[in-house]
Amino acid sequence: MPPSPFNAVLVPQRRGQHSGGMAWRCTTDVEEYDQAVGDLLRADPVVQTLPLTVLAAIRAGRYPRRLLGWWHEGPTWGAVLHTPPHELIVAALPEPALGPLVDGLLERGWLPGGVFGATRSAALFAAVWAHRTGCQALLGHYQRLYALDSVRPPPQPNGSADPVRKKDRPVLLRWLAAFDAEAGTRPVDLEARVDQLIGECRALVWTDPDGSPVSVVAWSPLVAGMVRLGPVYTPPEHRRHGYASALTAAACRRALDSGARHLVLFTDLANPTSNEIYQRVGFRPVEDRLRVTFASPPTSPTAG
Question: 7, 237, 260, 284: most buried, per Cβ within 10 A?
Answer without folding.
Answer: 260
